[in-house]
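Morning run. Coffee first, then this:
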Amino acid sequence: MALLLRVVISPKEARRLKLSEVPESVDQLVDVIKERLELQGDFLVQFEDPDFGNALCNLTTMSELPAEHAVLHIVWDSDSSSLNQCIGSVSSLDTASVHSGDIRSSWTDSIQTNLRHVTQWPSPFPIPKLSYDVELQLRKGNETYEKSKKGLDVTREIKMEILDKIAQAIFEIKSYPEKDELESVASSLVLKYPCLKEPGSITGYEGWKTSIKYKLGNFRSKLRHAGCNEVDVNSKRKGGTEDNSPFTLKRPRRGEVNHVPDYPQHHSDFTLEEERLHLVEEMKKKKRDQTLIQHKMELTFSLRRKEIVEGQPMVSEVQERWPALFSCEQISQEFCRITSKDLLESFRGSLDIYVPLLLRLYRARKGAFGQKMEDVLDALDEKTSDILTHRKTAALRGLPIFVQDDTSKFFLQCSASDTEEQGIRDATVAILSVHEDDDALNAVNVAVVLEGAIILQDLPDLCTAFAYLFGLLYTMNIDYPKEMFYTFEAVQCIFFDLGSRCSQRIRSLRTKLQL
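And here it is:
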């Protein structure tokens, strides 16, 4: 006998399910629901009982269901967690579908749980708490080491427990740590547990450093098989690609805190795509609900990052699929989601600190940089109003000259009577200043250009445009242009303090600014 079911997965999601045969037990029904609706995780099934005015009752036997059709409610086990952080259990991934139409604070909390918030590598690295028996053995080992300097005989069980917990703790902060960061972990381990020092080793932890490195690699492999987005984008696809292009790693390289996060709990490609379509429709309205847009942009962040990092689409393609992303507000929000830093506040705060220092450097060494630096400083000296803004502009215009970048294709200018195409022809990453025909000094419009198209315009000044352009490079996962590489690296490492590595040229600049 056939059975027609209405399965309520959440307050905003219900599915229609038709069974050709009635399952013999509730457990079999649960298995069928999981398979047909692609749900994972533990849940309880309740049904609307017509004998009690359709009040909900727990389903214990199939005979309790009304004949031919029934309404079921899924009650999720609060202890059944998804792998949306890719940490903890690597054997379960809860991707139950949920469609969110309204905005709830609890959903916002759920969205945030799969994002990292640590921007700097901790020093010293906090060694996580181990199992009670291992902690006990290490404490005894430390006591023995203090008396006799004899290290602990590390068994396989002890070593596996230590490496497992450390690998998880590292991944909570960073998926692909640098060599010096791994060394800091190994150093902290033997500092907390001296009994683990390796005899004959100069540092006492070289072996632990190597073991942690390989254990973290194995941990990422497990997460990849479990469906973790951040490591899955770096897996080599079998069979190659259509254009036979070489495989390139898509790991975070510029201090990204949330590079490719996993989907929020109870969401999948299907449900997040539905949310994206709702977002597109909202953007078509004249009167938009900004609160709704903000919520849906947060909800779909993981899907958007996966598309951008893995697919590397053109800017125009992203504009078509994610029109809300290209507003000033959302560029700032997206940058914050990726780096956990406020775009404008951090940039302006750094300008307040470094502009006087940069200008002092420029004046002290202007002879070494020729006429270009002279022109920047002379233009500043001629200003008699709004001096603070002009000082910031001069500092930014002089930075690429100081680090020996080429600004010929970056700082673009055109008159108001020129066509848009004339000003941005062949420009991939640039800032365009539009001037009145009879006034080449004061810009009436400042715009951000990517891939030959204006993305933002009518910005108040060059500093604001530079900040939004920097945010867009992170948002779109675009490499720094070769001609301006050191300028953007200086902004990243000095202004925003993102990433643990930088070139010798930028390290030298940072040292000069600290003198």
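The first strand starts at residue 3 and ends at 10. Good start to the day.
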